[in-house]
Design a protein that fits this description.
Blueprint: H1 2-8, E1 11-14, E2 23-29, E3 34-35, E4 40-41, H2 45-53, E5 56-61, E6 80-81, H3 97-123, H4 130-154, H5 163-181, H6 186-198, H7 208-211, H8 219-237, H9 244-251, H10 273-288, H11 299-309, H12 316-326, E7 334-337, E8 341-347, E9 357-363, E10 368-376, E11 386-389, H13 399-408
Antiparallel strand pairs: 1-5, 2-4, 2-5, 3-6, 7-8, 7-11, 8-9, 9-10
């Protein structure tokens, strides 16, 4: 009898009938598995839009537990779609790095040109071509699924005077790699890549004397700077066919779990999984970027700051997964070995994260270039170990030239 009573409390309805205040017990997505951490209330229409974005068709609700919005006490968390299981034979083969690197190099440079065009158009009040942007961000996703090491490596090559252009592109690359690592559905990854590509477009409307100020901003200047988020959302609101997932990456990239972020001071229960992800990715890329007035820090130092600031600012579990995703020494990081050789991290060793592959090209003891060679640091025949991360200017290196020789030629 008890089981029948419990069953009578549940009702399967189409997503179109779902409304704020309803209590959800389960969700259904046609032809795909969906994992949900816990049940809960639908707090607003944005939550319903997110379910729609990931392809949810039907939900099971408990009509007896429906509440008014102001009395909701248990919000349903974001749903993460589980990857669709495929036969081994259908799994796409990884494209060799040297093949994908040449494609990624062109893709990266073309995306920089597009990003520059977007910023100029927005500053002039010209509506942007969202289809052109989506084609570029979809190409980023495609390259990362072919071989993520190619664009990961490209994202480490910085130009001090192109921060705003490169930052958004790099965040899109890193967000895609991170989401792929978390086994997010490809269709969702494409929406996240687009949002990351556009997350800082509102900055072009910030006065340049504030945007490029080398010193600390005053309280008034900081208030102006924070408006870039709302400005970016405003641009997206004027564009057709922008999903709520894409918008959430723009809206939430500066929100923090302790409610001290901006512009809405959202707390941990209000920030989506995707907002938590881009907060980590955006902060990491900003910390490691070279700017005209600020030197970028090493990936390891940036990781330490993210760990220190979790769980107050950042999701602790996601920070750990982000570091696992990129590796202790991310692809493209310039390192010095204890033998005095300099090289770029070219491959990760998942089982031995402190012993990646390194393409060496310079000997600091001889102060000269050496034949390019890839060393697997976990192989016992090599005594080399990583001594530290370095910057090209430490040894007056033309890193771009060495990169082209090591990866493109």
């Amino acid at each position: 009898m008890a089981s029948n009573a419990n069953a009578s409390k549940s009702e399967k309805i189409s997503l179109s009938k779902l409304r704020p205040g309803m209590y959800v017990l389960a969700v259904f997505k046609k032809n795909k598995d969906v994992s949900i951490k816990s049940e809960g209330y639908i707090i607003n229409t944005a939550a319903i839009d997110k379910l729609k974005d990931i392809g949810i068709k039907e939900v099971v609700v408990d009509p007896t537990r429906e509440k008014k919005k102001d009395k909701i006490d248990r919000v349903m968390p974001d749903i993460t779609p589980s990857p669709v299981r495929k036969e081994k034979s259908s799994k796409p083969k990884k494209v060799p790095l040297d093949v994908e690197m040449k494609k990624a190099n062109k893709l990266y440079n073309d995306a920089k040109v597009l990003q520059s065009k977007l910023l100029k158009d927005i500053s002039k009040g010209i509506s942007i071509d969202i289809d052109e942007v989506k084609n570029s961000s979809d190409a980023i996703v495609e390259s990362i699924f072919n071989n993520q090491d190619a664009l990961s490596c490209m994202s480490r090559l910085r130009m001090k005077d192109e921060y705003l252009i490169e930052h958004s592109l790099n965040v899109s690359i890193l967000m895609t790699i991170f989401a792929k690592h978390l086994a997010v559905d490809r269709e969702i990854i494409e929406q996240l890549a687009l949002g990351a590509f556009l997350h800082d477009i509102g900055k072009i409307l910030v006065p340049s004397e504030i945007l490029n100020k080398p010193g600390k901003l005053t309280a008034d200047e900081y208030d102006v700077m924070k408006e870039h988020v709302n400005s970016g959302v405003g641009v997206l609101n004027d564009l057709p066919n922008i999903s709520s997932i894409t918008k959430s990456t723009v809206k939430e990239h500066h929100e923090r779990l302790d409610g001290k972020g901006y512009p809405a001071q959202l707390n941990s229960e209000q920030i989506s999984q995707y907002g938590r992800m881009i907060a980590i990715v955006d902060s990491y890329d900003a910390m490691t970027a070279e700017r005209v007035y600020k030197a970028g820090m090493s990936p390891i130092k940036a990781f330490k700051i993210l760990v220190k600031d979790a769980p107050n600012s950042y999701d602790e579990e996601l920070v750990d997964k982000f570091i696992q995703c990129l590796g202790v020494y991310p692809i493209g990081t310039l390192v010095k070995l204890n033998s005095g050789k300099l090289g770029l991290i070219s491959q990760l060793n998942k089982s031995r994260p402190l012993h990646p592959y390194v393409k060496v090209f310079y000997n600091t003891r001889l102060n000269q270039a050496i034949p390019i060679e890839e060393i697997n640091l976990k192989e016992s025949k090599y005594k080399d170990q990583i001594d530290c991360c370095i910057k090209p200017e430490d040894f007056k290196l033309n890193l771009k030239a060495f990169f082209n020789a090591a990866f493109l030629n």
